[in-house]
């Protein structure tokens, strides 16, 4: 059995995933079951495209339910650090190669609750900026081996 990894989420991301799970376990599951029953009533299942499509959709829904259940069971709500310090759940504006970009630092699952792109704290750039303060310049080694400098322009809690 594989070890399950802790998922760091903001409260907003946790609530969004929990609402999706409730929808998929309730209303959406019932809708798919109804479509299967309707298609089954049409007769010959071997050549019934509607039946096959509904069964496939049911399978995908159950897989997503399992995925969400595991994520929520292993979720840890993160409190972003105070303004000025980069941490999980921070909205960070960086300057990289003369361009300013804004990201959320955290697990990709945080993306469900924000329109910002997400940087993983485990990525080279995410690991480099984690713990940095506004005004700091840090560097990281890119996958191609180049050393790249990043300046923290702003860091504040996402929420």
- Termini separation (Å)? 36 Å
**Low-confidence blocks of residues:** none
Total number of β-strand segments? 7
Give the integer mean of the pLDDT values: 89
Q: What is the name of the CATH architecture of the largest domain?
A: Orthogonal Bundle
Describe this structure in words.
With 159 residues, this protein is α/β, with parallel strands linked by helices. The protein folds into 2 domains: 7-77, Helix Hairpins (Orthogonal Bundle), CATH 1.10.287; 90-157, Transcription elongation factor, GreA/GreB, C-terminal domain (Chitinase A, domain 3). The protein is 39% helix and 25% strand. The protein has 3 helices and 7 strands. It has helices spanning 11-41, 49-73, 124-129, and strands at residues 7-9, 75-77, 90-96, 99-105, 117-119, 137-141, 147-157. The strands form 2 sheets. The protein has a 5-stranded mixed beta sheet with strand order 5-4-3-7-6. Strand 3 and strand 4 form a beta hairpin. Helix 1 (11-41) runs antiparallel to helix 2. The longest helix has 31 residues, at 11-41. It is elongated and about 70 Å long. The two termini are 36 Å apart. The model has no long low-confidence stretch (mean pLDDT 89). Belongs to the GreA/GreB family. Keywords: DNA-binding, Elongation factor, Protein biosynthesis, Transcription, Transcription regulation. One of its GO terms (biological process) is regulation of DNA-templated transcription elongation.
């Amino acid at each position: 059995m594989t070890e399950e990894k802790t998922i760091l989420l903001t409260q907003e991301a946790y609530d969004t995933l929990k609402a999706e799970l409730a929808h998929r376990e309730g209303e959406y599951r019932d809708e798919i079951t109804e479509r299967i029953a309707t298609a089954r009533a049409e007769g010959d299942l071997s050549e019934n495209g509607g039946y096959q499509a509904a069964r496939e959709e049911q399978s995908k829904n159950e897989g997503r339910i399992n995925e969400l259940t595991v994520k929520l069971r292993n979720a840890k709500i993160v409190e972003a650090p105070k303004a000025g310090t980069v941490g999980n759940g921070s909205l960070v504006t960086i300057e990289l190669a003369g361009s300013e970009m804004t990201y959320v630092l955290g697990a990709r699952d945080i993306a469900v609750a924000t329109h910002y792109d997400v940087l993983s704290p485990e990525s080279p750039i995410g690991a480099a900026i984690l713990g940095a303060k506004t005004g700091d310049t840090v560097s990281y080694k890119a996958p191609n081996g180049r050393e790249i400098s990043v300046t923290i322009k702003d860091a504040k809690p996402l929420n």
